[in-house]
Automatic annotation (TrEMBL):
UniProt protein name: Hydroxyproline O-arabinosyltransferase-like domain-containing protein
Alphabetical list of PANTHER family matching this protein: HYDROXYPROLINE O-ARABINOSYLTRANSFERASE 3, PEPTIDYL SERINE ALPHA-GALACTOSYLTRANSFERASE
Domain Hydroxyproline O-arabinosyltransferase-like: from-to ranges: 39-117
GO MF: glycosyltransferase activity
Species of origin: Papaver atlanticum
Topology term for the membrane: Single-pass membrane protein
Length: 125
């Protein structure tokens, strides 16, 4: 029972530390910085001695990662832009596009068009 009490106390200390750091970050970083909570977590967990196991195959980020492999999630960090012929248009807005930043003010439309057929090289779709 003492071990459980110690563990709960440790978690409360970690949460309090995270709360202090998040407040500090919220007051010092620009209001539009969406990564503030991640920064606060990273700093608080490092100060609290939390160890993380990083897995390179945990997540893919299209359009730069082109194979799913054994990954667990797809994270749309970047916009996916294609010509209607199915060619990826790197670094420019394509005729078909999905970019999560386009939907900051609300969800994507229910009738979001599917991407154009793409060559076999791109296996995510």
């Amino acid at each position: 029972m003492k071990e459980l009490a110690d563990e709960i106390r440790e978690e409360k200390i970690g949460v309090c530390l995270w709360r202090e750091i998040i407040f500090d970050i919220l007051t010092k970083l620009p209001a539009k910085s969406l990564s503030r909570f991640r920064y606060a977590y990273a700093v608080a967990s490092a100060l609290h001695g939390v160890q993380h196991i990083l897995r390179k195959d945990f997540m893919i980020q299209p359009p730069w990662d082109t194979e799913i492999g054994k990954t667990c999630i797809i994270h749309f960090t970047y916009g996916c832009d294609y010509a209607l012929k199915g060619e990826l248009t790197y670094d420019k807005i394509g005729e078909w596009r999905f970019d999560k930043r386009s939907y900051f003010c609300g969800p994507p439309p229910k009738n979001l068009p599917l991407p154009p057929p793409v060559p076999k090289v791109w296996s995510l779709w």
